[in-house]
Amino acid sequence: MVVDDHPIWREGVARDLGERGLEVVATAPDAGAAVRIAPAVRPQVVLMDLNLGETSGVDAIAGIVGKLPDTRVLVLSASGEHADVLEALKAGATGYLVKSASAEELVDAVHRTARGVPVFTPGLAGLVLGEYRRLAQRPAGEPAVPALTERETEVLRQVAKGLTAKQIGERLVVSHRTVESHVQNTLRKLQLHNRSQLVRYALEQGLADD
Amino acid sequence: MFRAAPVPATLIDVERPLEPLWRGVVVYRVLTLVTVLGVAAFHMTDYASPWGAGLVLAVMTVWTAVLARGYLGDGFEDRRGPLALADLAVSAGILLTTPLIVTDAQLDASVPGMGSIWTSGAVLACAVAYRIPGGVVAAAVISAALVLAKSRATLTELNDIQILVLAGLTVGYASLVLRRAAERVRRAVAEEAAAAERERLARAVHDGVLQVLAHVGRRGAELGGAAAELGALAGEQEVALRTLLTSGNAQVDAAGRRDLAATLRASASGRVTVSAPAHPVELPAATVGELDAVVRAALANVERHVGAEAPAWVLVEELDGAIEISVRDDGPGIPAGRLAEAEEQGRLGVAQSMRGRVAGLGGTLDLDTGPGRGTEWTIRIPTRADERRESV
After folding, report:
1. For residue range B137-182, what is the model confidence (pLDDT) as tens digits?
2. pTM here?
3. Best interface-test mutation with B: which of A4, A6, A15, A50 has the largest number of B CBs within 10 A?
4. Which residues of chain A have a CB within 8 Å of the CB of B315?
5. Cα(B76)–Cα(B80) distance, integer angstroms
6. Domain containing B236: what range?
C-alpha cells in the first residue's frame, strides 16, 4: 500500500513496485483515507510519505499500527523532515528511506520491512541516538526513560557513521544478524516508551475509556 | 529546544523604544518647575535681586516649554541628543546665577540655589539619550556647577551629588535595557516573518517541483543512457532546492545562538550523509561557524584524496558536557606519518588548520585511520553545563 499526496509520485512508485514483482493492494492520498483503507486490504507493508498535504503521516502510522499489528510501515520521505521522521518511528514505523533512493533500494527495503528487519539509514541512527541522549538528559524524578546498553550505543553510532551491518559485525566480532537485532531493540524500546507515555497521558486525562 | 516566545511588539514600541522615558523626563521637568517656582515665590523678598530671580524663573519656564516640544514632538527624534546636551548647558548656567541672586545668609539657612531640583532633569535627559556614560557625565557637570554656585560642599551638597549620580546611572541603564529589548523584539519579529515565508514557499515547492524532480531523477536512472544523465541532474537539483528550503533553521537566533545540526545538514549531498539529533543542538553562533568550517575542511579533504564521488558520513552527538562530531570515509586511509611529514615540510596541511580551529574552541581533534579502514576525524568540544540546559 502506497500513501503519498502527490499523484505523479504515488503512481510512479506503485508502478516501480509492480514491475518488480510486488503487489500494490491500494494507494491513498492522505492520512484519513490511509487509515480507512488499510483495514480493508490488510497490507503487509505500508509505504508512507510524512507530508500529506493538510494531514500528517505520523497520525496515519499510529492509526494503522493500532488497528493492524502485523502491518509494517516503511517511511519514504524527503530529507529535511527530521523531527517528523523521529515521531513516525516512535509512532510505530520500522524503517525510513529517502525519496532519492533508487528503485532497487526501495524494493529491497520493502522486502526487509516485510520480514520485520528495520531499515536503518545512517541519518535515522543519528536521530534515534539523539533522542536517547535527549531522554537521558531529562531531570531526575521523571518516570523511567529507556536507555541504551553500551553495545547498542556502539552499534547505533557505527550505523550513524555509515558502516554496514557486515562491517560493524567484523569490527565488533559478532554476526551481522546480531547487529541487526541490536538495532531492532533500540527502536522497539523507543516505541514501547512512546506507547506507555500515550497510555499514561490518556489515563491522566480520563480518556482511557474512549 | 523551545525559544522564548518573542515579547508581543505592542509592549515595546520597536521603532521608538525610548518614548516612555522621554515622556517621564518631560513630566519630571514640569513638576519640578512648579516646585521651584513655589519655593522661589516664598523666598522672593529676601533675594539679593528679586528682578534677577524673576528673569531666571522666566527663562526656566520658557526652556521647559522648549524641552517639552523637543522631547515629545514628532519629527525631532534625531535632535533629542543635541537638545539634551543644550539642556545640560542651560541647566548648569541657571545654577551658576545663584551667587548673583541668593544671599550667603540664605544659603547658610539651607535656601536652595537657582534651579535647584529642576536642573537634575538635564541629567535624566542625557542618561536617556546617551545611556550610562551620558548619565554619569551629566551628573558630574551638574554637581560641579552646584558646588561652584554655592561655593560650599557640605553634607547637603554631597547628598545632592550622590542622588544625581545614582539617577544618571539608573536611567542610563534603563535606556540601555530598553534599546536592547527593542532590538531583540525587532530581530525576533523579522525571523518569524522570514520563517513563515519560507514555510509557505516550502509547501508550494514540496507539492510540485520537488516531487517532479525526484520522479525525473528516478525514472532517468532506470532508463539509462542520456536519460540517466538528465535524471542525475534533476536529482542534484532536488537535493539543492530542499537544502535551500530547510537551511533557514541554521540562522542565528536573537540570543546569538545557532543550531549546529541544521548548519551541518547544509553540507549534506548525494555523497555526504549528515546524521544528527532531531532537536536543535544550539551553541553560540561563533562556535557553530568554526565547527562548520572544520567539517567542511574534512569533507573537502575526502573529495580531494578519496575521490569526487566518494561517500562520507558526518555524525553529530550531544554527550554529557561535550559535543562530538565525527567525519568518516571509506577510502584507503591516510598512510602513517603522511600528515606529520606534510607538517614538517611546512605545508599548512588540512590537519593543521583543523587542529587550530578546534583548539581555539578548547576541544580536541582525533584521527583514526589506516590502510583499508578508511579515515575518521573525531572533533570533541566541551560545552558548559549551564549553557546546555538552556538549549534543551
Report:
1. 999 999 999 999 999 888 989 999 999 999 999 999 999 999 998 8
2. 0.61
3. A6
4. 122, 126, 157, 160-161
5. 7
6. 1-248
